[in-house]
Fold this sequence. Notes:
The protein contains six helices and twelve strands.
Amino acid sequence: xxxxxxxxxxxATLTTLAFVPQVTxxxxxxxxxxxxxxxxxxxxxxxxxxxxxxxxxxxxxxxAANAVTLALNVVLVSLKLRHGSLPGPRSAIVVKPSPIxxxxxxxxxxIEAGEIVIDGCRDxxxxxxxxxxxxxxxxxxxxxxxRNVLFKPPARFVNxxxxxxxxxxxxxxxxxxxxxxxxxxxxxxxxEHVPGLNLRCNCxxxxxxxxxxxxxRATDD
Length: 221
Ligand SMILES: [Zn+2]
């Protein structure tokens, strides 16, 4: 093999391998918010043209590298289309440590009452899909009206308040009053059927009920 071809194979292997961790991470977390759609689309188009170029020149390293990279990019683009953000709702929020509990969702700009705060909040899983759900995802699962409902990120990070500023739903979390920039977005966990409720409330509002007990627990005992 001529030395220049070895360089070609090395280049092909490295640029292709560089993508694997990102695809694995995005696939596992279903989180592609940090990926720019424009970058992905431009990059995929470029890789596609490289592939055409390689096929015309019959350069195996160029063909192989760009075919695999293109396939990996198609995975990222489809994840982005399914789970990623569209400009608007999500750009209004950020996930960061919360004084209420763990991580919380915070407004990065004022959000008006009735505005969508988070898009694509929950997935309804079939019994089949439920079997394949990793153990660490199960804490975000609730049975609502007989359906297996998985709270997705970032909606799963929304904390409870006894005086919430948002209301949840399968598709959107919506502001029920104006939320100021920097304010934590909160919902009422009892009303939202959040799983595993039996905990002391830490919301610190004057009207705090003190203890959160899920509707499923209330009927048990
Ligand atoms: Zn409370």
